Amino acid sequence: MREELLRIIEKNSRMDLKELAVILGVEEVDVVNELAALEAEGIICGYHTMINWENTNIEKVNALIEVRITPQRGQGFDSFAERIYKYAEVNSVYLISGGYDLLVSLEGKSLREVSNFVSDKLATLDGVLSTATHFVLKKYKDHGTILTSKYEDERELITP
Amino acid sequence: MRDPLSRQVVELKPSGIRKFFDIVSEMKDAISLGVGEPDFATPWHIRDEGIYSLEQGHTKYTSNAGLMKLREEICHYLYRTQGIHYHPTREVLITVGGSEAIDIGIRAMINPGEGEEVLIPQPSYVSYEPCTILAGGKPVIIDLKAENEFRLTPEELKAAITPKTKLLILPFPNNPTGAIMEKKDLEAIADIIIENDIYVMSDEIYGELTYKDKHVSIASLPGMKERTLLINGFSKAYAMTGWRLGYVCGPQNIIEQMTKIHQFAIMCAPTTAQYAAIEALKNGDEDIVEMRTAYNQRRRFLMHAFREMGLECFEPYGAFYVFPCIKEFGMTSEEFATRFLEEEKVAAVPGDAFGASGEGYLRISYAYSLEKLKMAMERLAHFITKLREEKGK
To answer: Which of A38, A50, A140, B58 is paired with A26 by a 20 to 30 Å CA distance?
Structure first.
């Protein structure tokens, strides 16, 4: 049930325990225990809500920044990543194989705010060789959810 | 002017579904639980392969029997899922949906006007009976029973067989009941079929949608392959209804004659769909698992909802239908469905649209999102509470 449970709540974390139990064909107490275990094991890390900020009148700017670094002796990439991910404006930090080392996704209120972060905080860190900032113009799909179109049921109402 | 019409066609009963459809389409903003097709779109990699085939200019007829590569993939599929060996050049025909295979299969096997009987277990899909009549055969209905979970029992089969019996239609997993025939059930009827030297048309279009053990084809039982037409297709397993693609595997002599009809009537199944179907068989196993998991969750949800409202329903383990019993309300299926639609704005198909033995039942499709099903079940609970109060007065 573990994988099926995770797949359901990954799409809809608001489903209540009773309903989860029904559709999984188990007892409610099993769901409660499994969720507790998944949280304790660090598998479930939160129950966030997916928001398409573009549909609000709140201004947000998203950027993806490629960072090339020289790993410090005895520290590797991890400590470097830590210095970056502690910033609240940083949404995610990935260690990447290939042409650069860290992919940092950033959220700011304005272009200026993001630019300032890159030029003042990120680029000046010891060991940063270069940064390349890409601003997000439009989000089509995020976390497996298509943001640009709505599902319309075009089936006939009754078919054999 | 003289009558342009064929009496046989005119006398053919229109499908009960059609009648109900006309009522439903008058109703604005109704929730429908009435469809017999998946709510999912065809997985993208399959659609993409169809698009790619168009880009490549594969816009011509294929051979009558269908693309060789597709027939080979079908044979691989039936070997890996059922352990049956079919020969791709002699024992496989690609058709326009499973529906065409049903039609031409019966036509290839029945001698018109000689009283040859086709056994049709009901409730079942609406086309077996008219296709039999149009082929000049005599439909003999076997009324399946809720107490047997709508499976076909050896006793029921035996009682229906006469010296004229030629063909048995075996529609499992079943639309509309959701019933399945497990291996033991099939074994119990296989002996009778062999003893009486009759043929089987096994419509396994819902074969990938079972929620207990894996589906077993009757063609995989000893002595059955040579007397079975195995019909399947891509509509239900891969959510490809609009592509119109099915297939039939069976004994060479029958497939040959079916190919002849197919060649004259159809030429070949749609080429684009055939290319897409190759991709479905090669790389679509995971899609099936994902959709089956979703259907199963909805199925559990509905069964639980029925239990909560005290509505009688045997637990179905196949297809994407549940078939609750509404006899306690003292109405016909049609009256119930019509009132349910008018008073609660939910459309479900009256069980008798699938044969007289479906009277007293309702077909509810769960090819809908959980949110939609939830809404519909709230309305159903409200409706039957009202009916019970009415009855109590």
So the answer is: A50
Q: Shortest CB distance from B347 goes to which of A8, A24, A158?
A: A158
Contact B259, B251 (CB under 8 A): no
**Owning domain of residue B230:** 45-284
A153 in B contact zone (CB under 8 Å): yes
- Do residues B145 and B219 share a domain? yes
Tokens 């298509």 -> residue: A146
For chain A, domains (ranges, CATH) are 2-40 (1.10.10), 53-138 (3.30.70.920)
Q: What are phi and psi of B99, to 5 degrees?
A: -55, -45
Closest CA to B370 of A140, A149, A143, A14: A14
Q: Which residues of B touch A17 (CB under 8 A)?
A: none
- Are the Cβ atoms of B297 and A8 closer than 8 angstroms? yes
| Residues of chain B neighbouring A23 (CB-CB closer than 8 A) | 297-298, 300-301, 370
Q: Which of residues 346-375 of B touch A (CB under 8 A)?
A: 347, 349, 353-354, 370
Contact between residue B201 and residue B170 where contact means Cβ atoms under 8 Å apart: yes
pLDDT in tens, B157-173: 999 999 999 999 999 99
The tens digit of pLDDT for each residue in B111-143 reads 999 999 999 999 999 999 999 999 999 999 999
Chain A residues with beta carbon closer than 8 angstroms to that of B30: 157
